[in-house]
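Tokens in:
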């Protein structure tokens, strides 16, 4: 089989299976893992795939799914770390916060451990466990536990969120587009994010730049409702001038300080 033919079949495989490891692909195409790595290197050069910790996914403008939390946390790790630390600069002692569940907001929660007199409402048990030893008040929403992602969701979660009117929401997302705004691929998870948006006074979106210029099926929040987007500037395909023009406030972080 020619390399070009195998590369095409790898893309087809990923469209069907969403993600794969190098080992999976080597078995599927009956070649050595070194051969698969060369194929992936070429596909990555043309922005057709995205490498993750131990695997690979399609690099697509439409988001239909995402990896489990552990894989997402290791992907773009330093970008997410820097975003989390920068976001903490927007929190003042005495603030009331919604913190959405996510692999970027987990770093934000870690950066809040030095803050005081906060009231934090979250639907993420991992975030709650990080903040439990601080002097801040932590409220967990309750709801159905999604075990692979540490998040709580569903009717109980949404009913709890309706009880609060926090000053700030720190929102995670798998997709953000200047025209479509914040979107999500899962209808059930979308409802909780929408409820957070409806209740909060200010909205901060925390996401690495690989999620920009991406659209998913369900609308969460229009662009004009975003008070501040905090991201990294490592994605060279992004038209940053458009983001600066259309957003209320854009903050891009320096990831070098985290290495």
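Residues out:
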């Amino acid at each position: 089989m020619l390399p070009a033919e195998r590369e095409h079949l790898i893309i087809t495989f990923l469209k069907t299976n969403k993600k794969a490891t190098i080992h999976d692909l080597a078995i599927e195409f009956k070649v050595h893992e070194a051969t698969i790595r060369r194929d992936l290197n070429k596909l990555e050069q043309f922005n057709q795939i995205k490498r993750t910790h131990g695997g690979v996914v399609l690099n697509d403008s439409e988001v239909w799914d995402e990896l489990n939390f552990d894989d997402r946390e290791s992907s773009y790790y330093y970008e997410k770390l820097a975003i989390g630390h920068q976001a903490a600069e927007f929190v003042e002692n005495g603030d009331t916060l919604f913190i959405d569940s996510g692999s970027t907001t987990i770093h934000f929660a870690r950066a809040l451990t030095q803050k005081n007199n906060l009231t934090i409402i979250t639907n993420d048990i991992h975030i709650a466990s990080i903040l439990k030893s601080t002097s801040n008040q932590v409220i967990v929403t309750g709801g159905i536990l999604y075990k692979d992602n540490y998040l709580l969701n569903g009717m109980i979660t949404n009913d709890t969120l309706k009880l609060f009117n926090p000053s700030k929401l720190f929102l995670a997302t798998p997709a953000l587009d200047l025209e479509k705004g914040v979107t999500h691929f899962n209808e059930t998870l979308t409802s909780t994010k929408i409820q957070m948006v409806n209740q909060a006074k200010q909205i901060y979106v925390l996401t690495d730049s690989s999620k920009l210029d991406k659209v998913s099926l369900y609308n969460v929040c229009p662009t004009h409702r975003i008070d501040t987007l905090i991201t990294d500037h490592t994605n060279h395909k992004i038209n940053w001038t458009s983001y600066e023009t259309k957003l209320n406030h854009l903050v891009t972080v320096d990831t070098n300080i985290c290495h």
